[in-house]
Amino acid sequence: MAPTSTAAAQLETIPQLLERNVARYGTKAAYREKEFGIWQSWTWSQAAQEIDALAFGLLKLGVNEGDHIAIIGRNRPYMYWAMVAAQKCGAVPVPLYQDAVAEEIAYVLDHCGARFVIAQDQEQVDKVFEVQDKLNNLEHMIYLDPRGMRKYDHSKLTRYQKLQEQGLAAKAELGAELDARMDHQNADTTCVMLYTSGTTGRPKGVVLSNRNVVETSKNSSEFDDLKPGDEILAYLPMAWVGDFIFSIGQAYWTGFCVNCPESPDTMHSDLREIGPTYYFAPPRVFETQLTNVMIRMEDAGRFKQWLFHHFMAHAKKVGPDLLDGKSVSFGDKLKYKLGDLLVFGPLKNTLGFSRVRVGYTAGEAIGPEIFDFYRSLGINLKQLYGQTEACVFITQQPDGEVRSDTVGVASPGVELKIAENGEVFYRSPGVFVEYFKNAESTADTKDKEGWVATGDAGFIEDGSGHLRIIDRAKDVGKMADGALFAPKYVENKLKFFPNVLEAVVFGNGRDRCAAFINIDLTAVGNWAERNNIAYSSYQELAGHPQVLATIQAHVEEVNASVAQDPMLAGCQIHRFLVLHKQLDADDGELTRTLKVRRRIIEEKYADLINALYDGSEHVSTETEVTYEDGRKGAIKATLELRDAKVFSPVKMAAE
Hints:
This protein is of the alpha/beta class. About 40% of the residues lie in helices and about 20% in strands. The protein has 23 helices and 29 strands. It is globular, with a radius of gyration of 26 Å. Residues about 1-10 have low confidence and may be disordered.
């Protein structure tokens, strides 16, 4: 049951929502975590006790109101509790990406002036120790997993559970202080600070208030009728705004259960066991899952392959209509039910999507073919459009109005407008307070009336009110002949193919487009094994003649599709190469949320781009890489550059 308006007026902070949930859902599961192969569960009452114990421990340690407490680790109930405990103390939680290298961590810790760090394990503690000479404000670290920590100097280190024990022992003397600090908090108190992915430069600290988080969580939860009985799987980075809103904001507003997988390696099996009813994944996850499905089908027998392709063709024809409640003939319904029994149902169960009632994807555009594939299975997958600065939600797709070519209508409480240059602006209760220590960027992004510049180009459809995003405003350009250049549109079409993991298209200001392509090692490696093709590295497989021929066929198929759109037909790829290494966040080529850092790639691989445009058939290059242990190295390669067939635009052909 949703809170009444009177009750809701008293629910201004996350700690207040926690108190409400203890009173209303005290014995209901709030968190689950799989450890040593067994699911463990905590009720709202038990979670509140864990949070209070840690909050008292933090007070005992000397945490002041307004302090920044960095939190580094994977999705675990203890790490979520740490964020809420910090909030109860009047401090500001600052979650960091667990796979960030030491230098990235150093920048954030120094920028926010963190006095305390709560780290998951030895790996994260070591990364902080590596850069501690650059951190003038850091005083103490708390660690959760004690493995490997026994011989460390504990003068500035405390185990998480020990701090909780110290907190409980001091509960009597600190109870009044904790209550007083919670009384100081209101809707305008800072709830969390999250750092942007840094696509174009240094990450910025986005300050979000309780009003931002609670109002957005309330509006978005009511939009999709989220309930206390819903289940989510918390597996995305805790430093990402989406995970914070789903696993803290919406979870605390609705009272649903947050499930944490045992490890990234077991995520998919844990997903099947939990069977979430509310699910979010960026396009890369859905692309990878589809790739794995297609790989399994290639290994299946002929009859299974025929069965799959036969019923999937029917699902693509009627599945989305059935999902949207549109009229479908009795014969088509019957055939779809048979397909669900034989193909769709088992496939959804394998993917862990059997119970998904509301599914979302966002972060970047998803290929329409990939999007339609999941909806044809009967999975209510929708798109949303959002940003860290908006507490995620700017637009959402209402049930019955789900399309692959739009990102939906304005979320409740959100206003939209399009500037003369096509850039999308929004205003909402979720609009961030400021960029920490960066008044200039704050003023550039948010005007005095609260309108925020998204940096994306798009338009609002007449009649439907749906927003269509063309591309990043800074990436949309013009070809030399004045034709529109929108690289993401083409890149998403390429990534529909299981063999393609990533694509980067160039062409702004040039007479034609060219592309870098990363192959998907899992998909292409599976193909190589089935065809008895030996290879010793990604580089060797990426340069194999048959692989290049396959990628060329994909590029030309995409070109034929792009030619169907007169406005974007100039974005067809004339030349391409398959990169000798995978684009990597550790090498600065991707953000930690796996978005392409286009400008850095253009600078780093300028020699390869020049070769694509000067007609070279081969190019030799040397590239610096970062290994998992942080060491630097270099790899050399000679790459083959290929021409691709391009097609006349439909408009021209009609003439």
